[in-house]
């Protein structure tokens, strides 16, 4: 039973796992690299890493249309209820929960989390997703490098999804150091090339990662996918 993971542009990913469709940070409207439009998005669950508009994205509209459950930090879950989202599940950092598609634990992320209307979006997070077949995916979302990525790596990560765009998150140099701390089997770079300020050469980064760490990099085009 493998999991299909598709990059939808920026930090947005779609997972197809154990018969469930999961969206992470579904930012399509206003995203020049979006692989799909919000009206075509399918979801049973939506994960939101923090309150910024390029991560909350089209979550509210998609959840209302699909009846998906949104998983996020507690503060964002309260805000989503105020927006009329019926099914929300709030968690906090370090806390895991066994959802029908697998376990999700919120990890640290060093970033901001104000919501688009200025509401308190709590603290930003990344996601450690324990799939039903035992594989583990770490989606770091928006963060700078931090030493406790080593602790996440100790769990044995099959796939790490890391930002490389610089300016708002880790850039290519720190993202290489993150790979060294996490030691995943495979890594996908995200959060680059969406806007001029985060343009990066992902292929060059992939060559560097392979050379310095031996870890395989999957440089995806928005809309393309790999199996985990
Ligand atoms: Ni952000
Ligand atoms: Mn962002």
Question: Would you kindly provide a written description of the structure presented here, covering whatever features stand out?
Answer:
The chain is α/β, with parallel strands linked by helices. It has one domain (4-221): Ribonuclease Z/Hydroxyacylglutathione hydrolase-like (Metallo-beta-lactamase, Chain A), CATH 3.60.15. It is built from 6 helices and 14 strands. The chain has helices at residues 53-56, 59-66, 74-82, 149-153, 172-182, 202-213, and strands at residues 4-9, 12-17, 20-24, 45-47, 69-73, 88-91, 96-99, 102-108, 125-131, 136-139, 159-163, 186-190, 216-217, 225-227. The strands form 2 sheets. It has a 7-stranded mixed β-sheet with strand order 6-5-4-3-2-1-14, covered by helices on one side. A hairpin with a 2-residue loop joins β2 (12-17) and β3 (20-24). α5 packs parallel to α6. The protein binds nickel (II) ion and manganese (II) ion.
Characteristics:
single chain; 228 residues; alpha/beta; Metallo-beta-lactamase, Chain A; seven-stranded mixed beta sheet; 6 helices; 14 strands; 29% strand; binds nickel (II) ion; binds manganese (II) ion
Average pLDDT, rounded to a whole number, is: 98
Strand content: 25-35%
> Helical amount among residues, as a percent range?
10-25%
The CATH topology: Metallo-beta-lactamase, Chain A
Computed over alpha carbons, the radius of gyration is 16 Å
Q: What's the number of helices? A: 6
CATH class: Alpha Beta
Number of domains: 1
Please identify the structural class as seen in this structure. alpha/beta
Q: What's the N-to-C terminus distance?
A: 9 Å
Any idea what the CATH superfamily is called? Answer: Ribonuclease Z/Hydroxyacylglutathione hydrolase-like
Largest sheet: 7 strands, mixed
Which ligands appear in the coordinates? nickel (II) ion, manganese (II) ion
Tally the beta strands: 14
Provide the spatial order of strands within the biggest beta sheet: 6-5-4-3-2-1-14
Q: Can you name the CATH architecture?
A: 4-Layer Sandwich
Task: Write down the overall geometry.
Answer: globular
Helix/strand order: EEEEHHEHEEEEEHEHEHEE
Would you identify the regions where 5 or more consecutive residues have pLDDT less than 50? none
């Amino acid at each position: 039973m493998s999991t299909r993971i598709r990059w939808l542009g920026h930090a947005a990913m779609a997972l197809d796992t154990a018969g469930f469709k999961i969206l992470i940070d579904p930012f399509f409207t206003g995203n020049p690299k979006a692989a799909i439009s919000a009206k075509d998005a399918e979801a049973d669950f939506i994960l939101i890493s923090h309150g910024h508009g390029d991560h909350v994205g089209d979550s509210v509209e998609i959840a209302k249309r699909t009846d998906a459950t949104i998983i996020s930090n507690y503060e964002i879950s309260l805000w989503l209820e105020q927006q009329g989202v019926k099914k929300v599940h709030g968690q906090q950092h370090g806390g895991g929960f066994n959802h029908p598609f697998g376990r999700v634990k919120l990890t640290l992320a060093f970033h901001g989390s104000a919501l688009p209307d200025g509401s308190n979006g709590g603290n930003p997070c990344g996601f450690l997703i324990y799939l039903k077949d035992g594989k583990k995916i770490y989606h770091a979302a928006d963060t700078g490098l931090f030493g406790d990525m080593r602790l996440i790596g100790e769990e044995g990560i099959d796939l790490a999804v890391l930002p490389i765009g610089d300016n708002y998150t880790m850039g290519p140099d720190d993202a290489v150091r993150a790979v060294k701390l996490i030691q995943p089997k495979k890594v996908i770079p995200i959060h680059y090339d969406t806007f001029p300020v985060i343009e990066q050469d992902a292929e060059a980064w992939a060559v560097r990662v392979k050379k310095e760490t031996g870890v395989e990099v999957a440089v995806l085009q928005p809309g393309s996918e790999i199996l985990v």
